[in-house]
Amino acid sequence: MSGDVRGVASELLELDSERAIEEIVAGLADTVLRDLRRRGAVVAISGGIDSSLVAALCARAFGPERVLGLFLPEADSSPDSLQLGRLLAASLGIETIVEDITPTLTAFGCYQRRDEAIRAAIPDYGPGR
């Protein structure tokens, strides 16, 4: 019986990735171009898998000339993220903008609240420690 369950599970997990990609691309194009009446997309790119996939799908759905990649580095961002994101954007042929959000996060008190939360658990925590 366990062989039957594995066979059924295996069939359920099979995916025609090219077909799935085309369905997603068609859905994006229909929704954005027709329903929302927009000409493309702005995609925040972190350098990670999720945003990279979204950028690639959008470039395919709208054409790279209609996709803008947005990098939002902040004080704690890894420089590797920006480098990886730039490599992705270049390979997709999409235009990009970098907007450092550190001043905004500082103004909102995000770093201060983070430090206070850490100090609540680790009293000796502080800048440079």
List the helices and strands and how they pair.
Blueprint: H1 2-13, H2 17-35, E1 41-44, H3 49-62, E2 67-71, H4 79-92, E3 95-98, H5 102-107, H6 110-121
Our count of helices gives: 6
Mean pLDDT: 91
Which architecture of the largest domain would the CATH scheme give at its second level?
Answer: 3-Layer(aba) Sandwich
Helix content: 55-70%
* SS-based class: mainly alpha
- CATH superfamily of the largest domain, by name, is HUPs
Number of domains: 2
**How are the strands of the biggest sheet laid out side by side?**
1-2-3
Number of strands: 3
Question: How would a textbook summarize the main sheet?
Answer: 3 strands, parallel
Low-confidence stretches: none
Quickly name the level 1 CATH class of the largest domain.
Answer: Alpha Beta
Can you describe this structure?
The protein has helices spanning 2-13, 17-35, 49-62, 79-92, 102-107, 110-121, and strands at 41-44, 67-71, 95-98. By secondary structure, it is mainly alpha-helical. The protein folds into two domains: 16-98, HUPs (Rossmann fold, 3-Layer(aba) Sandwich); 100-129, no CATH class. It has a three-stranded parallel β-sheet, with helices on one face. Helix 2 (17-35) packs across helix 3 (49-62) and helix 3 (49-62) packs parallel to helix 4. The model has no long low-confidence stretch (mean pLDDT 91).
Please give a quick description of this structure.
This protein is mostly helical and about 130 residues long.
Structure keywords:
mainly alpha, Rossmann fold, 129 residues, 2 domains
